[in-house]
Design goal:
It is built from 16 helices and two strands. The chain starts with a helix and ends with a helix.
Length: 432
């Protein structure tokens, strides 16, 4: 794979003089499979870092003698790191190449994970989780950028779709893996496992992932050029509105992620293993919805699917609030309405980025960084919000329903529908 990248830079013309051939187009099926495995592992470390310790949140509360809200803020710290990291590392990787930010990010993740094992209090743990978030942001951004360096069009769509499936599966496996670890170690052992995973990834990346951005294609102009790109994006009302739609939908998702362990374990009495199964079932619904969305795109526009999903998600969120307040149906109705919200989110979240990214292909990297930063930034705010009013099912349900409702209102009243053009089919598939 390294030889292909070295000898064939992006823009090479092979055969048909009108056809642009990228290095990835010359890879064998075996080389592509190896690339997908390496990039998939890099992408998976983000969801694993976010979700693997979720079953241990009640144990951390007890072990560090702190409050549930303070423990939820450690999740916020990770999301803040992810948001800031994408804004910084995305443009940086366009200037210095992909390998240096990636390897530096993985080193930061390893160091933070090791220090988390020995965290003496919740304040130190929260600060280290920010550093973990910065580290995994490098892995996420660089993995996406590498695909963009090596592939375009339908090839890009196919490779990236496989990576998105990995990103969807990782949150399912993470709480289950965390629950398994907790059956024979304590919460500190989860962070030790993350450190080992980071060490394995840095070896794999150093040996198997070459530099994919030649010097000739690196961006010049420094901070000024980056700021001009961001200013242009922020001046586009439709883009900003769609980014907010995606971010508010993410807020609903992370309110569930941060609150579900306390609700399901303390309020409804599930043990750590049962919680892992319930959490995984919800993630299965979310992934199934994203895959079903590909079929829906054959008959409906992304705008139609997005608006319908937000309406359905808001309705399911209101049902969730009703069941949480009244207790009607017990755990069954609570989980059913939660899973409906997750399924609606699975339909909404891919279409909003597809519509947003289709507007700024000339600054795709910066647009993707801003989109990811806003999604995780708003998610970081929502994670502890429910905890401010307690860690029961009612506060969690209110924040989830509020996020979906706010996302719907922004889509209906902020995003100008007449300015939404057609979405490139390859891009629409790639983001699912």
């Amino acid at each position: 794979m390294k030889q292909l990248v070295d000898k064939t830079g992006p823009g090479t013309k092979v055969g048909d003089p009108t056809e642009e051939v990228l290095p990835g187009d010359l890879m064998t099926n075996r080389q592509r499979a190896q690339l997908v495995l390496v990039l998939g592992a890099l992408i998976a470390i983000g969801p694993l870092t976010i979700d693997m310790y979720l079953p241990a949140l009640p144990a951390i509360t007890t072990g560090l003698q702190t409050t549930e809200t303070a423990v939820q803020l450690t999740l916020t710290g990770t999301l803040v790191g992810l948001a800031l990291g994408q804004l910084l590392i995305g443009p940086l990787s366009d200037v210095v190449g992909r390998r240096v930010p990636l390897l530096a990010g993985l080193v930061a993740h390893i160091v933070a994970s090791v220090l988390c094992v020995f965290a003496p209090n919740i304040e130190v743990l929260g600060a280290l989780r920010v550093l973990q978030g910065l580290g995994v942001a490098a892995a996420t951004v660089v993995a996406t950028a590498v695909v963009r360096d090596l592939f375009s069009g339908a090839s890009f769509a196919r490779i990236f779709s496989r990576l998105m499936l990995v990103m969807g599966l990782a949150p399912i496996l993470a709480p289950t893996l965390g629950s398994g670890l907790l059956s024979w170690t304590d919460w500190r052992g989860v962070f030790a496992a993350l450190a080992v995973l980071g060490a394995l990834l840095i070896v794999v990346a150093a040996l198997k992932l070459p530099e994919t951005l030649p010097v000739a294609r690196r961006r010049h102009g420094g901070i000024g050029a980056t700021m001009r790109d961001y200013r242009g994006l922020l001046n586009d009302r439709a883009f900003v509105g769609l980014v907010l739609v995606a971010g508010l939908a993410m807020a609903a998702l992370f309110a569930y992620v941060s609150g579900s362990s306390f609700v399901l374990q303390r309020e409804y009495g599930l043990d750590e293993q049962e919680f892992g199964l319930a959490f995984g079932a919800g993630a299965v619904g979310l992934i199934a919805a994203t895959q079903f969305n590909v079929r829906l795109l054959r008959r409906f526009t992304p705008q139609q699917i997005l608006v319908s999903a937000l309406i359905a998600g808001t309705a399911a969120g209101l049902l969730l609030v009703m069941f949480a307040v009244t207790g009607f149906g017990g755990l069954g109705t609570l989980l059913a309405s939660l899973w409906l919200v997750l399924a609606a989110t699975g339909l909404a979240m891919p279409n909003a980025p597809a519509l947003a990214m289709s507007r700024h292909s000339e600054a795709a990297g910066t647009a993707a960084a801003l989109l990811g930063a806003v999604q995780f930034g708003i998610g970081a705010l929502s994670a502890p919000l429910a905890g401010l009013f307690g860690t029961g099912s009612v506060p969690m349900a209110v924040v989830i329903a509020g996020g979906m409702a706010a996302s719907l209102l922004v889509m209906l009243f902020v995003v100008p529908r007449t300015s939404l053009g057609a979405v490139d089919p390859d891009l629409a598939v790639a983001l699912h």
